[in-house]
UniProtKB/TrEMBL annotation, chain A:
It comes from Aliiruegeria lutimaris. It comes from the Bacteria. Residues 18-150 form the DUF1468 domain. Keywords: Membrane, Transmembrane, Transmembrane helix. This is Tripartite tricarboxylate transporter TctB family protein. The chain crosses the membrane at residues 18-35, 47-68, 80-97, 126-145.
Automatic annotation (TrEMBL), chain B:
Pfam families: TctA (PF01970). This is TctA family transporter. The chain crosses the membrane at residues 20-47, 106-138, 145-162, 168-189, 201-221, 257-279, 319-340, 352-377, 389-405, 462-483. Keywords: Membrane, Transmembrane, Transmembrane helix.
Amino acid sequence: MQGVDQVQPSIAKRASSGGVLLLIGLIILVVAWNYPVGKLTQMGPGFIPRVVGFVICALAAAIIAIDLSAPSHARGEKMHWRGLIFVSAAILIFASVVDRVGLVPSMFLAVAVSMLADFDARPLNILVYATLATLGGWLLFVVALELPIPAFWR
Amino acid sequence: MIDQFLLGLGVVLQPHILMYAFIGVFIGQLIGVLPGIGAITAISLLLPVTFYLDATTSMIMLAGIYYGSQYGGSIASILLNLPGTPSSVVTCLEGYPLSKSNRGGLALFVAALSSFAGGMVGVAILVLAAIPMTIIALRFGAPEYAMLVILGLLAASLIGTGSQIRSFAMVVLGIALGLVGADQTTGYYRFVAIPELADGISLVSLAMGLFGVSEIIRNAAVRSTPGRVMSIRMRDVIPTRAEARTLGLPILRGSSIGSFFGALPGTGAAIASFMAYAIEKRVSRTPEKFGTGHLPGLAGPESANNAAAQTGFIPTLTLGIPGDAVMALIIGALILNGIIPGPRLMVDQPELFWGVIASFFVGNIILLLINIPLIRLWVLLLRIPYQKLYPVIIVMICVGVYSHRTSVTDVVLTLAFGILGYVMKNYRFEPAPVLLGFVLGPLLEDNFRRAMLIYRGDFTVFVTRPISAILVTCSVVLVVFAIRSSIKARRKTARVLS
């Protein structure tokens, strides 16, 4: 809701954005710690990863410091859970079945599942639209572009 | 120079290449019109298609999408007050008031004409600069390349809107993602968590995830009603003689500003259009007219972003250094086609090099010709709600990524990058610098390691070689300037709040 007085988000919340980045930097450092570093004149594969890890940690620390000291900041957006869940589901379903059932059924499933993210979608709508979209996809990918992927299960 | 350009023209005017140039600019204009799909998304969607084409044709098509989207972006801005591309944000300021007062047709015509003029100036500068730039670039060694990449990455994160330190952090994160896979010099596996990552992260997955999937997650479940599209009367499209006379200088200024910012690595069309608007307002004798549908305020920025879209190819084609995320994708497409971008490109592949440049010339003419006659089609497209569009985009992303390496892992990775891009943006991190870092990171590592090897770890080599010294100076000036302006801004907000 706009217009409500902006309450200062808690310290943990304000630090979370840089905190996530710090975590990424630390993970890079931990994973790359055993890679051979070499010397400056003869760098090993671990040299740049270590530099990158340290730079990310330093930038993350600076971002945390700025976010904590800055008087006020626009609050992060709210999460779009519905979109996140159904878009993810659509892509995961496509990925898990395309090897087995072929392109056309996977496309149908991906369209149908992703449409569930829309509040206003009705079952019949989804069925009709998914069929049309799949037909279009079949024409584009199988007929026109002749992608080397089987259209139906092999 | 003329000879080479004619050689290129000969390449483009072959019917099948001309067809792909047309397809490219048409798709570009189309996605520019549709808000919510940008050039980056469209180009990453078409990356897999380019494996079935030769390098010249795919470059011509992908580049066409990029500068075509600059034309299309202004259409949605003028008719709906919705910028289709980041660089057409300022077009809304003058374009939408015009269409509210029933002069939308005139606004579209002026926008198309200024775009065309800007684009042509950009192409002319590209043709003039190509040979001298390549001559300089051929003298680049490893230290120069390393410094140029650093300058480009710094410029991309320090110039422009948004938090500079956040953009820079994203550039470094992109470099980190570029490290995944076998090390270029030793073949040592780095960050290979699953065997499928041995060849590195696929550019297609990263780009489609960060820009395609994340935007769909954000917008799919948002109720939207398509805006009311202003009606256009074709009769009042042509400006009066007095109006036409006010356009010449703004177009000239806009084209020059655009050409400059386009050629600078790290800055591009969006910054150019903002600068052009600010300058038009400053030099105008009637600054109070800005914001009410003042034609010079429309013509200047429109020519600037299109000029920048063309001169942006100067560093991309002559040095192999992309100036922004879109150029990074185009470079990626070249590499995937087995061509090493860089100064040797002009020497070894003159047909490709000059063919692509000549295609810009032809493409701008096509865009001017299809812009106004197809206006009814664009207006129709603006009525399509996003809810009908996104399921189709999801399928195109899935099939595109999957067909690239017939890899299910790539599809899952695309989703992972989509979620990453979505979460990042919630934390106010922009995804575009990640892509730039990802493409430039390996170039930086390779050249930096080579420079250190050749010059025995001697850092002074970066300032004793003349070209490298200039690049170092530019970088230092940029950083000092950025720090000073951010301190100033901070003092200002502190003063306001205390």
